[in-house]
């Protein structure tokens, strides 16, 4: 991760502040930074979203392609994740530098979506055993200022909401050869139900307290953090402990409870915002990139 | 993606015969028959000092899961650019042998294995006194010979035994335990068939797998990995059950380590 060098005196200052529920920029321990979300930013994709959380910028593009379903589950489609750490973010990511971080992020995303309820995979099936929709979710990190997981998961939820998959049907001709026929109307699309898509909350342990949405300086002061992904109903889909330090069992329980509370509170305003944005339709002002 | 050019691979469109297995033969993962109860860990066989070339090594068998680990070091760090001059580095490599699972795996490390190496590193790091080995690195290589469930948990235990056998200074042994949550039943230390069950079960409520790495004497959790979809209270109970499972493993690990130490440095003859 792009790291900043923090001196011992600064670390003590940050820890004392967190102990009194006051962070460097005046937030409380469980407050997020200012977040801006915009969907439908890239026209070549089937769904896209851009999020900027403080100084972290993430762009997600989703493309739907027809592929062969996995042999063990012939009546479901699947999602493929790929995270690319762009060299725009920091010079460390140039060439293959960001590959390790990117692989770690993609693996965590696979774990988060590794359950039957997040995305209805059965709706992605076209012909059981033969063809299905494969959603390629590509994440691009444009700017890195801590809290990548949260930003990526919110962007993925927004992009999935924005995704429009063309409607296809199977037609059989006289010889029994199956053919996939695309509907004539380009606006005839299938939308995904993103109610159950989880959001990731990362909590960093600083001293005896935990903080949500840590910046790079706060990350440098913490030895361990807990990543928890929560759906709108409060179900937990993935928990991971990251970092080289250890955690007390009591603080783990405290952090999972706080993470669940914060995560659950994130979903309702997000869905409201996405629906409002969609309802504006053509009248919507497009902000664009790094604006 | 790196391609394996040294081996002749089979046809592209081959399918595993397991797909054609009739559904009633697949065992149900809700309760256990036989001697082992839902909350019992499998009896463990552990020995240290098997690999003569390595500084420290350990072999662990739990049910049919067989894991071997070797530790090399401390030696000079390869990457000098990122070294923190005050502490050492731990490098973990987790590999599954191609014949270890039901379906043949590839020799090249896949993304799952890299992910598990990272989790193994994060679980072991709090236990090792890295500040005693400045500018050095300690290599931990774990190889799973047979995968019969809970490999990450047992790999953590095996690796920490190998580190202790190699004389690396540690705060405490790190023990791992895994659990499979299936609806309202939880199975501790699941075997492969219990861990994966059948895909149809995935549509039920409260399904998931939890792996916990614990430092028993300090009562600190150094690794936590939970998958699937569970309620938060179920998750908390699962973590507590895993911690109990770790404590149950502790005597076997202690015994193996004392035996290895006695073999290396036998008590003086009277």
UniProtKB/TrEMBL annotation, chain A:
Note the subunit structure: Component of the RNA exosome core complex (Exo-9), composed of EXOSC1, EXOSC2, EXOSC3, EXOSC4, EXOSC5, EXOSC6, EXOSC7, EXOSC8 and EXOSC9; within the complex interacts with EXOSC2 and EXOSC4. The catalytically inactive RNA exosome core complex (Exo-9) associates with the catalytic subunit EXOSC10/RRP6. Exo-9 may associate with DIS3 to form the nucleolar exosome complex, or DIS3L to form the cytoplasmic exosome complex. Exo-9 is formed by a hexameric base ring consisting of the heterodimers EXOSC4-EXOSC9, EXOSC5-EXOSC8 and EXOSC6-EXOSC7, and a cap ring consisting of EXOSC1, EXOSC2 and EXOSC3.
| Recorded family membership | Belongs to the RNase PH family.
Q: What is this protein called?
A: Exosome component 7
Keyword rRNA processing on entry: yes
The record's GO CC annotations read: cytoplasmic exosome (RNase complex); nuclear exosome (RNase complex); nucleolus
GO biological process terms, alphabetically, are: exonucleolytic trimming to generate mature 3'-end of 5.8S rRNA from tricistronic rRNA transcript (SSU-rRNA, 5.8S rRNA, LSU-rRNA); nuclear mRNA surveillance; nuclear polyadenylation-dependent rRNA catabolic process; rRNA catabolic process; TRAMP-dependent tRNA surveillance pathway; U1 snRNA 3'-end processing; U4 snRNA 3'-end processing; U5 snRNA 3'-end processing
| UniProt keyword list | Acetylation, Cytoplasm, Exosome, Nucleus, RNA-binding, rRNA processing
Q: Where in the cell is it found?
A: Cytoplasm; Nucleus, Nucleolus
Q: Which GO terms describe its molecular function?
A: mRNA 3'-UTR AU-rich region binding
Q: Which domain of life is it from?
A: Eukaryota
TrEMBL record, chain B:
Question: Which domain of life, per UniProt?
Answer: Eukaryota
PANTHER family registered for this protein in UniProt:
EXOSOME COMPLEX COMPONENT, EXOSOME COMPLEX COMPONENT MTR3
Write down the CDD domains for this protein, in alphabetical order.
Answer: RNase_PH_MTR3 (cd11371)
Q: Where in the cell is it found?
A: Cytoplasm; Nucleus
Q: Where is the Exoribonuclease phosphorolytic domain?
A: 41-169
Q: What stretch or stretches form a coiled coil here?
A: none
Pfam families documented for this protein: RNase_PH (PF01138)
Q: Which Gene3D superfamilies match?
A: GHMP Kinase, N-terminal domain
Q: Where is this region: Disordered?
A: 1-38
Enumerate composition-biased segments (Basic and acidic residues).
Answer: 1-12
* Stated name of the protein: Exoribonuclease phosphorolytic domain-containing protein
UniProt similarity note: Belongs to the RNase PH family.
Q: Which UniProt keywords apply?
A: Cytoplasm, Exosome, Nucleus, RNA-binding, rRNA processing
